[in-house]
Design brief:
The chain is mainly α. The protein has helices spanning 3-27, 57-76, 91-110, 118-121, 125-138, 140-143, 167-176, 186-193, 197-207, 218-230, 232-235, 261-270, 280-283, 285-299; strands at residues 43-44, 48-49, 178-182, 272-276. The strands form 2 sheets. A two-stranded antiparallel ribbon has the order 1-2. A two-stranded antiparallel sheet has the order 3-4. It is elongated. C-type cytochrome. Part of the cbb3-type cytochrome c oxidase complex. Belongs to the CcoP / FixP family.
Length: 310
């Protein structure tokens, strides 16, 4: 708060307090010439009489005590602009103290799972329940409450893992995040193969899941050398991808951004940038392990890894 606004608040508070004191003093005393308390001349129905009796002293004194309390409160707590108050209380400090106290309680709950592998944690139903709560509070915004994902956000319930599906790789993804970048290749491919180059590559990529469709496929045949010259570095000559780079397998039926021709052209022309935030600082390592264990349990309901992970 700037000094000007601080003084504005102080002046307003002071005027209000002094105004209350003056109002009590002015209205709480009788003046010469005032009618007697029982002499207002306002009578109804013969015996209903209006009185002008002042409030009793004890009542007025309670108002003064309230004003004194308010002044003491403003001295102790920060109620006068930027003045901190002698108690040095702040809402941020109270929040930090409450958070530290609650974190200590949570750490007792999470302590049994510290350092354990997520596939081991996933076999404990209580741990999976805790992990689901952490997931719903932190991860469901992107991956959905059922962890099925959406366009641009991976489905976490299947066995397809672009960055690797071993317990250590899944945990690393949660703790440290991932940055998946597909460069813009439209201009490069156009320079290599003409205006239809991107469509040629799209046609060839579609054949990777079923090589038999290459037969008599003119567009795919034109796209293969373009793929081999540009895309093979990340996705491999067989299109199986590279988990070290997060390059997806192009031979399965899973498409993070959709498998329409329009979507695939956009991916090649403009590139993609998928970002998974790091949660080490957000959750702490043990809570991140519990969330990862819950994710692991979704695709490994029997607690065992599949024979092969992609």
């Amino acid at each position: 708060m700037s000094p000007g606004w601080s003084w504005y608040v102080i002046v307003i508070v002071a005027i209000n307090i002094l105004g209350c004191v003056w109002l009590l003093w002015w209205t709480g005393k009788r003046r010469p010439g005032d009618p007697a308390p029982t002499d207002t001349s306002h009578i109804w129905d013969g015996d209903l009489t209006e009185y002008n009796k002042p409030m009793p002293k004890w009542w007025i004194n309670l108002f003064y005590i309230t004003i004194v309390f308010a002044i003491g409160y403003l001295v102790y707590y920060p109620g006068l602009g930027a003045v901190a108050g002698v108690g040095k209380w702040t809402s941020a400090g109270e929040h930090a103290a409450d958070k530290a106290r609650d974190d200590a309680k949570l750490e007792q709950t999470f302590a049994p799972y510290a350092g354990k592998s997520i596939d081991v944690i996933a076999r404990d139903p209580k741990a999976v329940t805790l992990g689901r709560s952490i997931f719903n509070n932190t991860c469901a915004t992107c991956h959905g409450s059922a962890a099925k994902g959406a366009i641009g956000y991976p489905n976490l319930t299947d066995d397809i893992w672009h960055w690797g599906g071993t317990p250590d790789r899944v945990l690393q993804t949660v703790l440290d995040g991932r940055e998946g970048v597909m460069p813009e290749w439209g201009k490069v491919l156009t320079g290599m193969g003409g205006d239809n180059a991107v469509d040629y590559v799209v046609a060839y990529v579609r054949t990777l899941s079923d090589p038999s469709t290459m037969q008599n496929n003119y567009m795919a045949a034109q796209g293969k050398p373009l793929y081999d010259g540009v895309c093979v570095a990340c996705h491999g000559i067989d299109g199986k991808g590279n988990q070290e780079l997060g390059a997806p397998d192009l031979t399965d039926n899973y498409w993070l951004y959709g498998n329409t021709s329009e979507s695939m052209r956009q991916t090649i022309n403009s590139g993609r940038h998928g970002s998974m935030p790091a949660h080490r600082q957000i959750l702490g390592e043990t809570r991140a392990r519990l969330a990862a264990a819950y994710v692991w349990s979704l695709s490994h309901p029997d607690g065992k890894p599949p024979t092969a992970t992609r």
